[in-house]
Amino acid sequence: MQLKKDHQKIYRNTETITMMNNHYNQIMYAQQQYQQPMMAPTSADSDAYSGKSAETRHLKPGELSTGTTIMAIKFDKGVVLCADSRVSTGAYVANRASDKIAQLHDHIWCCRSGSAADTQALTDYVRHFLAQLAVETGRLPEVKVAAHLMRRLCYENKDNLMAGVIVGGWDPVSGGSVFNIPLGGACIPMPFAIGGSGSTFIYGLVDSEFKENMTKEEALALCTKAVSHAMARDGSSGGVIRTCVATAEGNEREMIPGNKLPYGPAGW
Q: Is 68 a catalytic residue?
């Protein structure tokens, strides 16, 4: 019996010593790691950022960056919409003369940014719904109805879409209206709206130049000036400038070629 008690005592002492040794080893290892100089980045880490800008490092494998500049301004009798024409696929320009201003109804238009395929599908859906609504009610749909239809489609499919949209136009109830629908599906009525990768270059310009109750000529001049500045600074925006003026009298569409822009390399 005494021998059994001695064995138990020795076992407990051995277990205590083992725990103390393990604790000591952990402390020494932590001190070594703290005193060890930081390791230089490996070639694999540097390769992850090689050839990538700060704008493209967040992209997933196989995902490509897109770019554009779109803008809309409400004036006293309607709305001016404006957009560049470059469709970029990463560093490759897939289309240099596309039309990013799509008609949704008689006096309602939409500026598209993000994925061209996604925004084309969205405009097709909204155009179809507005046509049905006009037939059923017998009157022109309101701009806010088109904007909320677009918002609902964007919000309910936000995990599968990459679409930033500006809806603008004229209707007999509200007159000229502009709604900004950014990524995620919000819907914000605004006196003017800017979107796309080129918009970050011109917020200060537009804030300083914009004023309430602008005339058609003033709004058109500001849109073309701002978008041409964005095209000069943003590598994903370029080509020509397309404009659309929506009023009660109808729609006016124009195109400014790249060698006649208000600002840019052609005028330097």
A: yes
